[in-house]
Each structure stands twice: as structure tokens, then as C-alpha cells.
Amino acid sequence: MTAGLTPTSAAPEPAPARPLIGRANSSAFFKGQLKNILGAPSQVGEKLVVEDGRTIRITATKYSIPPSDSVAVPLATYGDKGLLATLIQTGKASELLEPGAANYVSDLAIFEFIGTMDQLMVPYIKSHAYHRALDSVTDPRVVEIGFSMPQMLDLQDLRRHEDLWRFEEKWGIEVILQTNDAFRRHKRLAVFDMDSTLIQQEVVDEIARFVGKEAEVSAITARAMNGEIDFSESLRQRVALLKGVPATVFEELKSVITFTPGARELCKALKMLGYKMAVLSGGFIPLANYVKEELGLDYAYANQLVVSADGKELTGELTGEIVHAERKELLLQQIAAENGVPLQQTIAIGDGANDLKMMHRAGLGVAFNAKAIVQAEAPCRMNSNTLKDVLYLLGLTREEQAQLC
């Protein structure tokens, strides 16, 4: 190989600007041991370098001439399990931080998160961490960080660790933790709650408006969603208050139903990726079927209200199986089995206490804008103004999302 020489008097040409788009990936395969290539480190240090939205941990900074019998050996992978943290800026950073810290995930926040995880390594093993900005290289709102799992903690313990909560409170960042394996990016089934998840209303509350009993029904709904009373009993109590409501109420409600921002985009993207999708609702089947058709879902399960013999009004009774927490969990497993999908490749998203069982059963369970008690018990939580942000949890960048929806 030859190289040309540049006269010392010639001014060097400015380096071209690094492009921020149009990236390409390269895969390198190690095909054997390489002799006399890399020397042994004679001065070992460590530093973190942030370049182009990624963190690189450098563990050796100077090399000596290698001995004649030296070989290059790939670094060992520390820890028996890799984790992936998705950091999402909520805009609620501590007032003690510098101005603007609440607008993006800063380098300082990334370094502090990695340091926090390192401190939880017992016995101590230095974590090999990396990070990737998913929306903006310069001012990212969403960043994912890969690191090693602390050996003395399981994933649920880590999600609830007080050090992690303190980090979130200080930086105004929500941290969603997942096992970093092949199933994280490659899901195949998504199931959703309907009320206050895919749509912004609680349907039974809307029906109650027609009979002037909104306050009574809303009070029962709130207690059920917070897990204060049994869901099945609360549903029967609310439905009993709807006796005499015109059977045409569901057609009238279609005009006032508001889909949650990002619901259409999320479902369109998942459909493009080949997902099967279902709505599993503690609401009522006429509107669940409407939501299914509007969003292009594959399944709809919900409760069925009894209509009077003349078909004119609701009787205040239910028929068929109630779609409660246990039923939702069973339906998730049933739909997954029908489609040959392992549970590791499923997502469950909801906001209420009756969604917790399916969240814990799924490969990824997300409490979306959920009640406080549900956020505390759910596997993951996300507080966002758009359901489309769920795509970040699958590792999809903003550019990739644009291709899908």
C-alpha cells in the first residue's frame, strides 16, 4: 500500500462536515486470531467519548510494541445479561439544573445514568455501555443506552430502585428498562386497552351523560381504575345505572369519540411491520368493534350490554364473559398461541389496574399515562402526549418511524 506526501508548507484542507443523515451500517466478522497486530496496553486508563450522538467507552489509551507471540483477543462480555434503557425527556427537570436541561437528554445526564448503573454493580464489574440518540443527534429527547445487568438485582428490582427514581426526578427523564435481546426489537403482537388508552374517553362515563348520572358513574370508574374495588363488581354497578338509555347511544357516541394522539400512527406502523393487533377492553363491544375498524386491528374483545326485547333501550345488565384483568391476560395468551407468537414477542399497553396482569404477562408491558398506583406496579411506564412514542421502545429511530407512518 502506498501513500502520497503533502508538503509541510501546504495548508491542510478543512475536514468535510460529518453528515447527520444517510448513514450506513457495516458488519465486521472476526475469522481467526490476528498475530502481531495489537500490542498490550502499557498505560491503561478510561474515558468516555461522545461522538455523533453515541457514547464510546475507551479502556486503553496507549499501546506498546507487541511481543512476537502476541495475539488479538476479542473482549469478554461482562455480566450474564444485557439491558437496554430508553431515556425519554419529560420536560420536568429539577430547577437546580442549568436552563434548558428539561428540553433534551444531555451528555451529563447520560454520564450520570451510566455512573448510577456502575454503582449498582455488586460484585463490581465495569459495565461496557453505549448510547444512541433516537430522534436528534444534537438535542435528543429520546436516547437508548445499553449496559450490563447488575448481578445482585433482577430486572423488577432495578426498575424500582431508589437510585433510578432519584435520577428520574433530578433530570426529568423517564427510564424504561428492557432485556436487550433479539425479542426486544422483533415483536409480533400488540394488545391495547381501549378507554383512556386508544381513545381519550371512558365510554361508560360518556353513556352516563345521557341519563344525567355522570358523577356517580365516574366515581365508581375512578375507584376501579385505581384498584380500590373489584373491577367486575364496579362494572355491574355502573351498568345498572344505565338502565333505560336508548340503544342508539353507541352510534351517537361514535361522533364524539376522540382517538389518543399517535394511536393511528402507532397502529399503522405496527401493521406495516406485520404485527397482529387487538383491543381488549373493559368497555363495550359496539365501540370496541368501531375502534378495531378505524385503526385496522385484527381482534376486538369487550363486554356486551343487554338490550330490551324491543331493541330500544339498555336493560342495565350484562351478558357473556366480563373482560376483567384475568380475562385480558388469558386473551393475550390465546391470541398469541393462535398466531404462533411467543409471549416474549408481545406488547400490552393500558392505563388501569385491570391491565396490569396482561402487562406483566407480555414481553413488554407499558402503563401509558396511567394512574399513579398502576405506574408503580407496571413493568414499564410512559407518560407522553402521543402513543407513537411507543415505537421508540422498539428501537425505531425518528427516521425509521417516518418510513412506516
TrEMBL record:
One of its GO terms (biological process) is L-serine biosynthetic process. Pathway: Amino-acid biosynthesis; L-serine biosynthesis; L-serine from 3-phospho-D-glycerate: step 3/3. GO terms for molecular function: L-phosphoserine phosphatase activity; magnesium ion binding. SUPFAM superfamilies: HAD-like (SSF56784). The active site is at residues 193, 195. GO terms for cellular component: cytoplasm. Keywords: Amino-acid biosynthesis, Hydrolase, Magnesium, Metal-binding, Serine biosynthesis. CDD domains: HAD_PSP. Pfam families: Hydrolase. The keyword Magnesium applies. Its cofactor is Mg(2+). Its EC number is 3.1.3.3. It is an enzyme of class 3 (hydrolase). PANTHER family: PHOSPHOSERINE PHOSPHATASE (PTHR43344:SF2). Belongs to the HAD-like hydrolase superfamily. SerB family. NCBIfam families: HAD-SF-IB, serB. This is phosphoserine phosphatase.
